[in-house]
Structure formats: C-alpha cells, structure tokens
Amino acid sequence: MKYEIMGGTVPAVEFQLNKNEAIFSQKGGMAWQTEGIDMKTNAHGGVMKSLGRMFAGESIFMNTYTATRDDARVAFATTVPGDIIPLNLTDSPNGFMLQKGCFLCAEPTVNLNIALTKRFSAGLLGGEGFVLQKATGTGMVFLEVDGDPIEKVLAPGEVLKVDTGNVVGFETSVSYEVETVKGLGNIFLGGEGLFLTKLVGPGKVIIQTQNFGDFAGRILSLLPRN
Prior knowledge:
Number of helices: 4
CATH architecture: 4-Layer Sandwich
Radius of gyration: 18 Å
Number of domains: 1
CATH superfamily: Mitochondrial biogenesis AIM24
Helix content: 10-25%
Strand content: over 45%
Strand order of the largest sheet: 5-6-3-10-13-8
Order of helices and strands: EEEEEHEEEEEEHEEEEEEHEEH
Distance between the termini: 52 Å
C-alpha cells in the first residue's frame, strides 16, 4: 500500500492499492476512487464495538474499500480546513487514544474501541464527552485535524493543559484528566470555557490549533435570529 497526502486548505489522502489490499473509513468519508475498488459496509469489529463508536461520535457502520486489481486508487478528504496526520501504530505498541471525530481512515489491521477515562468526572463534566477511542493493532491510521497539528513529547510528570476541543490524541502512557478553570471571574469573563484537559507525561501528544466547534459557534452567533 502506498499513500500520498495532497491538497492544502482541505487536504485528502489518496491510497494506491494492489489487489486485495484494503482501507476502511467512516461512512461517507470517501472523496474519490478509480475503477477496481469494491466497497462493503459493515459493523467493523462487531456490533458492540460499533455501538461504542456511536457513543464516541463516530459512525456505527464503517466502509471497507478493497482493491480488485493492482494500482486501484481511493481517497479520503477532511471535512473542514485542516490537516491529515499518518500515525503508525508500530511506534505506539500499547495503542493511541483518539478524541471523537478525528478518525479518518485506517488499514484493516487497526482496531477501534471505546475507552473510558480513569476518572468518570473527566468526561461527565468535560464538555467533549468522556468516551474516547483507542486505536490498537498494527498498521497505519490517519487522523483528521482541525487547523494545524502540533506534536509534543511530554517528559515523565510533565503537564500540558489544553482546551478540551483542541486535543487530537495521545499515547496510552499519558494520563488524562479534565479540571475546572479556577476563579469565577476567569470562568465568566475569560472566554476560555469552563474546563481544561490536563495531560501528564510521559508520551506523545497531538493537539490542533483550531476547535471547529468553537468556530461554528462563532459563525452561528453572527447569523440573524429572526
């Protein structure tokens, strides 16, 4: 399997597949394809896993695109301006935690499962949902990022506090907790929301420069309310 990330403002990743090679994605994620691609829709990983993906904000069903001949091509594009990050799970053998909505596509050897945070309050109060996805297995998974991606490697005990909507994912060695912004004045006047995600190393963290939910909210606030 070969792939190329192309485009700028709203990029896409195009795969060149040989016969019997495959890629799966969320329903409706495909942008274009050539002849020689067979699509099948199913509950990837079983019914229980697919229901878990629903709670994580993803599709219940996944589409698998399999090449029926060599040099067949299929591409998947982002839904908003941003970037695409290729993530090799071989570099993260214990898996990678993903924020809801950032999964774009992956090789069939990648498994997606729901993962609960260690502290129930982290998601119950965190505004972004306490259900995360955990990508495990081998092979490549491709993540959709709003705005520009920023990668950081946290040292043991190093703390990074991020707006909850700006978290893309992190290695399982990184602990995750949502804390309340301190001070009533900061909460009501600071404009940064009520919660921050606290990430504690060691491990790799991926964040995004844009929270599209906030961006959409700003646009809605400018629309006529008649």
